[in-house]
């Protein structure tokens, strides 16, 4: 099966799952709960978006900067250690990260932001390292041959050519962050997890899905927006080369 066909099958499967969840939510009374409590839903959604936005922006700034820093010749020796740390960190469940951070920082919104930041930091860092390291060395040599300085090579050659991988890491991290932010309720961070876990504790499927459906919609919407942004920041020539690869 070709890659495109596989992607098509995955997309159709996701659509089927989403439709099934929406039908389940409708018959469970989730939409009626949303209609009856629009103020609560709006407030919790704003909290959720705030958690995701702040933690994701901080993760992007730190991870991309650290990735660039480590790929410089002087600090290349630390790359293996950082990559191993990133790979191990990826295996730690989000709930475990929240529990660990809570044990040191206590309950509260700031604790949730820190835990979500750490959780989304690793995929962006890993993709930044991979993207920069996979830039064709002949391109770098050509830049040096044209008299470019190291800073110019970074901004004009390395980062543009690594942007596809970096954006892939950002999209993955932010979408995962949308789902992980639901767990922030457990440590006093608020968000749509309030409805999800309230529904679970009350054995009320309608309330639980009233929180779950907006999380799904947020994740899909953010992925769509980041996909559009990705098309803007990746050069058409590079995109064409990647599609042909």
From TrEMBL:
**Which segments cross the bilayer?**
12-35, 47-69, 81-101, 107-125, 162-187, 207-229
Q: Where is the ABC transmembrane type-1 domain?
A: 45-226
Q: Biological process GO annotation list?
A: amino acid transport; glycine betaine transport; transmembrane transport
Record's subcellular location: Cell membrane
Origin: domain of life: Bacteria
* Keyword Chaperone appears in the UniProt entry: no
Q: Indicate yes or no for the key word Protein biosynthesis.
A: no
Q: Which UniProt keywords apply?
A: Amino-acid transport, Membrane, Transmembrane, Transmembrane helix, Transport
Task: Cite the Pfam families for this sequence.
Answer: BPD_transp_1
* CDD domains in alphabetical order: TM_PBP2
Gene3D superfamilies found in the cross-reference section: MetI-like
Family in the record: Belongs to the binding-protein-dependent transport system permease family. CysTW subfamily.
Name of this chain's protein: ABC transporter permease
Query: What species is given as this protein's source?
Result: Pontibacillus marinus BH030004 = DSM 16465
């Amino acid at each position: 099966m070709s890659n495109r066909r596989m992607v098509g099958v995955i997309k159709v499967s996701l659509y089927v799952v989403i439709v099934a969840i929406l039908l389940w939510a409708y018959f469970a009374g989730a939409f009626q709960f949303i209609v009856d409590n629009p103020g609560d839903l709006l407030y919790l959604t704003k909290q959720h978006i705030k958690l995701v936005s702040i933690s994701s922006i901080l993760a992007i700034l730190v991870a991309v900067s650290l990735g660039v820093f480590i790929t410089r010749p002087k600090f290349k020796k630390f790359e293996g250690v950082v990559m191993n740390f990133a790979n191990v960190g990826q295996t730690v469940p989000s709930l475990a990260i929240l529990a660990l951070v809570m044990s040191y920082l206590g309950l509260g919104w700031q604790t949730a932001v820190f835990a979500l930041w750490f959780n989304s930091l690793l995929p962006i860092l890993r993709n930044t390292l991979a993207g920069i390291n996979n830039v064709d060395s002949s391109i770098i040599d050509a830049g040096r041959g044209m008299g470019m300085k190291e800073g110019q090579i970074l901004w004009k050659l390395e980062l543009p050519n690594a942007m596809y991988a970096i954006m892939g890491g950002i999209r993955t991290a932010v979408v995962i962050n949308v789902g992980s932010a639901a767990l922030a309720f457990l440590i006093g961070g608020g968000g749509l997890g309030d409805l999800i876990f309230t529904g679970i504790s009350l054995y009320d499927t309608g309330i639980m899905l009233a929180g779950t459906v907006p999380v799904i919609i947020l994740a899909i919407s953010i992925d769509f927006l980041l996909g559009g942004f990705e098309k803007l920041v990746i050069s058409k020539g590079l995109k064409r080369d990647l599609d042909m690869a």
